[in-house]
Known about the structure:
Largest sheet of chain A: 9 strands, mixed
Order of helices and strands of chain A: HHHHHEEEHEHEHEHEHEHEHHHHEE
CATH class of the domain at 122-311 in chain A: Alpha Beta
Number of helices of chain A: 15
Structural class of chain A: alpha/beta
CATH architecture of the domain at 122-311 in chain A: 3-Layer(aba) Sandwich
Strand order of the largest sheet of chain A: 1-2-6-5-4-3-7-8-9
Shape of chain A: elongated
Oligomer: homodimer
CATH topology of the domain at 122-311 in chain A: Rossmann fold
Helix content of chain A: 40-55%
Largest interface: A-B, 54 and 55 residues
Amino acid sequence: MSAANRPCEPSPAEPPRLVTEAERLARVALSCAVEPGDGTTSSLVGQLGAERALQRSLSATEGEPGEMLAARLRAVDAARQLDQAARCGIRFLVPGDPEWPPGLDQLDDAITDDGFGGTPPGLWVKGPMPLTELATSVAVVGSRAASVYGVEMTRAVCAHLALAGVPVVSGGALGIDVEAHGATLSADGVTAAVLACGVDRVYPAQNRRLLHHLASEFAVVSEQPPGSAPTRPRFLARNRLIAALTSGTVVVEAALRSGALNTAGWAESLNRHVMCVPGPVTSYTSRGVNNFLREGRGTVVTHGAEVLELVGAAGEHLVDPPRGETRPRDDLTSVEAKVVEWVPVSEPAQVESIARLSGLHLRTTEGALRRLRSKKLVQLSDEGWRLVPDA
Amino acid sequence: MSAANRPCEPSPAEPPRLVTEAERLARVALSCAVEPGDGTTSSLVGQLGAERALQRSLSATEGEPGEMLAARLRAVDAARQLDQAARCGIRFLVPGDPEWPPGLDQLDDAITDDGFGGTPPGLWVKGPMPLTELATSVAVVGSRAASVYGVEMTRAVCAHLALAGVPVVSGGALGIDVEAHGATLSADGVTAAVLACGVDRVYPAQNRRLLHHLASEFAVVSEQPPGSAPTRPRFLARNRLIAALTSGTVVVEAALRSGALNTAGWAESLNRHVMCVPGPVTSYTSRGVNNFLREGRGTVVTHGAEVLELVGAAGEHLVDPPRGETRPRDDLTSVEAKVVEWVPVSEPAQVESIARLSGLHLRTTEGALRRLRSKKLVQLSDEGWRLVPDA
């Protein structure tokens, strides 16, 4: 897609906060040595700044709890990492950079009770799209084992978002994720993938073409340094980034233990919109979504327009409440409406009885019945008047 | 089914309130002349008692607003109505009768802004089952145009309720209603139909056998006197009785303008449980249910057990939260669990790297990896250790 189609140009940035080279290198070192989701280190960085946090972490000696981290930190050559990444077209963003997504800073307020989470030291990004474009984005996530229903809904929602110029963020995984990216691209929309491995790696292998395309035309994002392998905790950590980078998360399909519900949980902790597409209770891949709703969490969405209404600026994308189809009965005069209410649905009644029930004069009732008959709402037989079935 | 299977015997009644013959006859007159859902008359009865309300209503003279009602009341021969009904095996219940369902009295507190609703003057009942058996009942309602999904869910929920001894109330209509009655009967459960016409009439004609069976073995209920035809306002009035007679209403399927949502609305006004079975957003007959949930109304239910949990006495029918299947990973020692977290999902890693990431000694890590391998969670190749796909 052309740059002109992109919905939001980088907003006029505040005067860029000066990020010193020393701070950037400190954050590279932390990014390479600290496992994602290490809330303790993240809090330390928040308190002391990256350089002092790095010094503090490096100072742990043998036998101290931080010994392993200190050893890993000492092994990092930050300048070389940065240089190698740059040669692969990978940039490293840190807080203070104009492109740094401000939503990530809120992650320090959503660290779990067991210390998981926190703002990452930096983000590794491959691709020409500035992350400022994700300011109004929506996450669309779900099961790897997607059903036909889930695939259909993902396509419909993402196409709708794309046409409205709302970028779609997902995890580049099989199933709902790859459909979300693909449907957005098909509708000339903007989409970015957030990975649990380095942005130079391809996981899962089946999505090679998609991930290469995103890295060359849009953006692939990770808090993991290039070369990192995906592990389970890294997937969980990645989910918090998807939630934090977007205005809301749509869970299209999720089994009971799906990672998509983990993303939804992060979105909830971050006060983002959590939007759930309900599904048949008989479907394995909707059980997690339905159960999430059953717990009173998340809002039901049944259409892309409802997603837009929730995440848009106030009043930007209002949706008419669904009304069902219009029925002939909707266009009656008040007298006709009064009369039709009292025409029996089964065994016919005489005009007199209908007039008595509706409290109208006999002639008024008779006139209304004739007009209702020409509108094919009532029928007259030898036994009297009755409703036309299913009118 | 035998009486022994019935879940709740008539509870030891309070000493029966004495209902005078005059009051009963006054209520028969009101039941025959006042249209169901006339909140004004209902309030008058609540204030003055039935006899004085009847006198007041009879006194309206020509030109006064209540003139038509007065004329209709004068035309009723209450004693004869009662006698004729009794000869057809139909009884007339009024407040104060031991069999009168106390839930109906709450209808006077749920009259709509335009004066619709209120406690009916009495109930016409055909069938041997005392309505006291409905004290713990659940309403199961939905679209006349039911889908296969709706029919399946209705059967599953009603069979579950029947086995737990919870009576099922529905409207005797086509679609979900007839399935609800039928599935309950098939599971030897207790079920009653609340009609919009007289209990001696058969509407819809297709359900003749079912309605006759309910009238001879269970109960068919209406606030309309025998012989009355079904009209639209009478269906709406009937819905409030279904909601008031039960502990909660399950909406299995409903299009956007389905009458089942009207019943759910009454249940909501009466502080009964409103339980919704979500469905595919692509299904016409689930749109109303999904939209109801989207408005933040009702609780998602996906199984009969969840219905029981909501309507049961506190702690009576507790449901384990759904957990998803157990995975081999759930049964690991804490060391194994720590190690497996750091085994890459795709490209293999060496023991050293896994030990470093997990913060464990090399030999501990190696031992855990071997045990994980015998549990088929990880695999070892020439390049190192990786997870078994989808383990």
